[in-house]
Amino acid sequence: MAGNIKNIENEFISLKDRLDDFPLGKNYINKYEEFKDKFKDEIHPEIKTRILEIEKEGYYNDHGIDHINMVIERATRLLNNLNITFIRDEEGFYLSPYELFILLMAIQLHDAGHLIATRSEHAEKGKELLAKFDSGRSLSTAERMHIGNIAKAHGGKKDPIGALPLQENISHQKIRPQFLAAILRLADELAEDKSRASNFLLNIGAITPTSEIFHRYSAALESITISGGELKLDFYIQDEFLLKMFPIKTKSGIIDKYLLDEIYDRTFKTFTEALYCSRFLPEKARITIVKVNIHILKSKNDDVIKNIYYELKETGYPFISDQDIYDLCESLKENELKINGEFIKNFIEQLSDYESIRS
Known about the structure:
Layout: H1 8-13, H2 28-54, H3 65-80, E1 84-85, E2 93-94, H4 97-109, H5 122-133, H6 141-152, E3 168-170, E4 173-175, H7 177-190, H8 199-203, H9 209-220, E5 221-227, E6 230-238, E7 245-250, E8 253-258, H10 259-278, E9 289-297, E10 304-313, H11 325-328, E11 333-334, E12 337-338, H12 341-349
Parallel strand pairs: 1-2, 6-9
Antiparallel strand pairs: 3-4, 5-6, 7-8, 9-10, 11-12
């Protein structure tokens, strides 16, 4: 029956007695489990090793099996907003078991391109890797093409989802590449929270300096909630991490940045990704508002010293490419001053009971 699914992967594996729902009655559950095991043993660990090499230049976070599981969990949440069902003619939004196979395969594949490409090119290279990886030709040519294209669309800004077909027929079944790609891309964007940070390495000071801010961002993200077209993000940050700037490697060289400004930039990116992916999703699954609550705590006793709250949503004519977060959120201004990283640093240092954390 339609209703909340705990985990779409577990739900898919439970369909072993419904092989007639798959092309030619073939056992696609076994196909998926075989590919999943290969990725788990041969691909995802190597991705983690590759990430550690890149980490020296500054990188985000883990892209191994834990990340894959988190993307599956976030995709489950997004699909639950549609009252998803895998039974045809049942009330709810129907997703065929075969489409679920295509989606799960694309999730497993989406970061594999890191093995043979740079971060900026990895989305495009996953498709090439799948063609080499499926040496036994367990998948058809059409299946490899569509899985690869859906995985590829999780990155890039040249409308990669819009370049996919709305609907295709493969193996005598309908699939919706744009819809599946939008779920994957948005789930990947939302696959972030404190569990993705390297907390032990942060605590012992062993994170590469140009990567630390990305792990601090993850460590601060306590909760993500998706409901009724709204995404809610709750951050909890101790004041000591808002007083200093962190180095970041960019194309033009190393720059310094406050953690608060990184949160603004990342949540603004999440908002724009949500708007983009929502073009290709049914209304019930669209995210049109991102609500952010930042709790700033004293390091010595975890008392709240300030809350910053803002909402990201479209206003006026729908064109935001020339706007920044301060244009969309008036709550991020105080007496015409932007409440940015420098503002909060000065605010903390001016508190009457402030004692220098760095002394």
